[in-house]
Amino acid sequence: MPLESLKRRTLVKGLSATLGLLALRGFSVNAENPVHFTHGIASGDPLHDRVILWTRVIPGHGAHQQLKVEWQIASDAKFRKMVAEGTTETDGGRDYTVKVDATGLKAGKQYYYRFTCEGVSSIVGKTKTLPKGKVREFKMGVASCSNYPQGYFNAYQDMAHADLDVVLHLGDYIYEYADGVYSNPIAVEQLGRRVQPSTEIIALEDYRMRYGLYRTDADLQALHRNHPMIAVWDDHELMNNTWHSGAENHNEGEGDFATRIAAAKKAYHEWMPIRTRESDQENIYRSFEIGNLADLIMLDTRFVGRDEQLEYSKDLGKDPSTFADTKLNKPERELRGKPQADWLRNELQKSKTRGATWQVLGQQVLMGKVLIPTIDPAIVDEAPIPDSYKQRMKGMLNLAKLGLPLNLDAWDGYPAARERLYDDLLEYGVNPISLAGDTHNAWAFNLRNAQGNAVGIELGTPGISSPGLESFLPLPIDTTQASFLASSPELVEADTSQRGWALLTLTPNGAETQFRYVSTVLSREYSVTSSAPLRASAGKRRYNDA
């Protein structure tokens, strides 16, 4: 079959699958319409005068064709006060996604936007530009790790209705696994949250279909409809435990790694409201000025400059006591790469020079030190888990005597690289705040370098639906949390069992961290609780009273 015919056939199949997905998820699709807006709308990467607008529209008859799409921005929900408008085009080459960098806006203002194609209109969304000048308060909602077959995205729904200036997504927006892998049987069988395609996603069309599935979720659509998003990928948008030249979840039978990673990045840039540089889809690190209050600096600590992760199972060796000196602490091991490290240093210098109060680093993995906890083996013996798992847990807990870190995929696995970052934060940083995702649990740290100097604070956001340490260490929750707090001196607060999101509120005088927890991800009926706020005064580089 000719390649062009194959592409058309694949496209038509994909469009048909999209309509089928919408029907399965309970969305109304008018078959008579010449086009269909299938996945809601979104906005992202706001600046002082512009914002990215996103939607997806497909031909109603399923044929491959180019579509002309109009977009509008207004200062009111009824579009009586038009601010900006224009036209763009889309086609199957970009999976019928639409992205517009809408300019000519005013700083710190809320706007409404919509799209029209062939006489059919999208829903209306809200967005907001970043402020300029003096800023009294700025609120960021922080999210990560939304796994569709693990349960409902109730935390997204809570975020959608929160009073926020922007949403930060720190990665694992989708997961790449096949049906039945890293999923909750209740969510899959009873709630109908089965992934499509059913196989692990490898090719471009696979990644596109998985994004399409996630974007049918009503809670995620509500989040995008109500708030602009600034996002970075972590590993699961690519493949588990990715590094610059490979991944744990990429095997010989799955083709060329470079081809797969290119497909993953292309789908990400198509489906996410990120400001894409057409000549460079590799580097997603970028920065945002929030008036005189803060600089938000988004990093890629997952892929672009990361050396391969160490693993205890293969790297510990016959004498575990030598692991830290011979492997873990090697000075050449890198997490960001020199180009990104140089760029960040320059961003910190610019931020300090212009007098910003806070420097917020939005990145993927925990910076704070989390050591393997010391837990009484008798508690493990009493846990209702198989004996084989008890033995594995005891083996891991034995390493606690050596003061080794729990997670070698985080900054803990790259301690020399972390010290280099801390050197820059101490020299050029002004009230640094690290934000992290990845672990599915809530954390708060007072960051310190190897000499014990205060560097800044960190909050790690809980996962939206992915299970946390309660599944890895199935022990009494109070025991687990207390053991981590006792074993890790930098750790101020930890919640190892609940799903949710984090709220960071910045003012000229202080930063406040609060976690929002949903009671369940397995029911549409849920409650939300908030943690007690943790506050850090400007100039202290640590949480108050912690």
Automatic annotation (TrEMBL):
Protein name: Alkaline phosphatase, putative
PANTHER family reported for this sequence: ALKALINE PHOSPHATASE FAMILY PROTEIN (AFU_ORTHOLOGUE AFUA_5G03860) (PTHR43606:SF2), PHOSPHATASE, PUTATIVE (AFU_ORTHOLOGUE AFUA_6G08710)-RELATED (PTHR43606)
Source organism of the structure: Aequoribacter fuscus
One Pfam family it belongs to: PhoD_N
InterPro entries from the UniProt entry: Metallo-depent_PP-like, PhoD-like_MPP, PhoD-like_sf, PhoD_N, Phospholipid_Metab_Enz
Protein origin, superkingdom: Bacteria
SUPFAM superfamilies: Metallo-dependent phosphatases
Phospholipase D N-terminal domain span: 39-129
The PhoD-like phosphatase metallophosphatase domain, residue ranges: 140-515
